[in-house]
Amino acid sequence: MKTSTAFFFALFFISSFAFGQNFFKKIDSLVKDNYQKNPDVSISVGFISSNKKYYTAYGKLSKESSADVNKNSLFEIASITKILTSNLIAQAVIEKKLKADDYIDSYLPAGYVLQKNLKNKIKISDLASHQSGLPDIDFGKLIELNPQQPVSSVTAQTLTEIINECSELKDYGKYRYSTIGYTLLGQILEKVYGKSYDEIIHEKLINPLKMTNTLTKDFNVKNKTTAYNPDGGVQEFFQWNITASAGLVKSTAYDMTTYLKAVLTKGNPIYEAALMTEKIYYKDEKREMGLGTNISTDEQNTIYLKSGDSMGQSSIICYNRAKNWGIIILLNQRNSKMRQNLLNDIYEKILK
């Protein structure tokens, strides 16, 4: 009986591995085809299926470089940072540091003073699901001031003034994508843990998962890609500042696939927190939102995903918990259409 059980376990393992390999050969073919049609845009992709990780990459670190992009090449993951932040929020809930439905009033740093009609109105979950109604940072103006580093002029004082001067939540309870919401979530995390966001994300995500190429303040490394804006001009990576929790983490296909493995594998705090972020907190005719996570459902699948765009790079991460797979796509140019078309192609032709 023992021999029989071992045999069937080995057969299952081999079948699962072959299944994952077959999937990824098809994915690699689509990624290669996409690169051949867009040879100026380098691509790095990580895929996980049944806890087995696979990688492919095409292109160079820059247009002038002879070095190939690989699974450890550094990209801006931009707003994918938000799902890391929401996972940290969920971990804080599990640790009873806060509740998702707590009002933000008592968690805000000193200096914030909500006007009377805003008090006991906005929940932490409202910030995380983009329905707080708070005004946001004006990126158009910031880009005009500094097209290479638009968020550099955003300070604690900037944020305090925006919040304190807000007298009405014109679209509270309706979806409106918000950078300031996730900046506030970062500050809330800092208050409940008594540490900087940088320290928190290292302590609870980066270090436990040994994501050694996921970087925050210091990202001047050898395997860093060059970023390009939609017109092909060189674009600087965003420098770390107060908006970090909304979109300033840098990472690799290898490290983000490691994160996906933790999200999909029972028995760790990141998995438990991810389950909480997948709960629907917002729903209308166009979308369903968890905590920082977009939820897409068809007749066969429920997909959790988040995209990211910096001034010079585009990325997307998604996973299917029921079918135990996940994928990260990183581009070294800001090109949301290419990113989305590639994911759609992979999903419709292979993963669906």
UniProtKB/TrEMBL annotation:
EC? Answer: 3.-.-.-
What keywords sit in the KW lines?
Hydrolase, Signal
- Give the signal peptide range: 1-20
Start and end of every Beta-lactamase-related domain?
Answer: 41-338
Q: Is the Signal keyword given for this protein? A: yes
Q: Which domain of life is it from?
A: Bacteria
Per the record's keyword annotation, is Signal included, yes or no?
A: yes
Query: A GO molecular function for this record?
Result: hydrolase activity
Quote the PANTHER family the UniProt record gives: BETA-LACTAMASE-RELATED DOMAIN-CONTAINING PROTEIN, D-ALANYL-D-ALANINE-CARBOXYPEPTIDASE/ENDOPEPTIDASE AMPH
Q: What is this protein called?
A: Serine hydrolase domain-containing protein
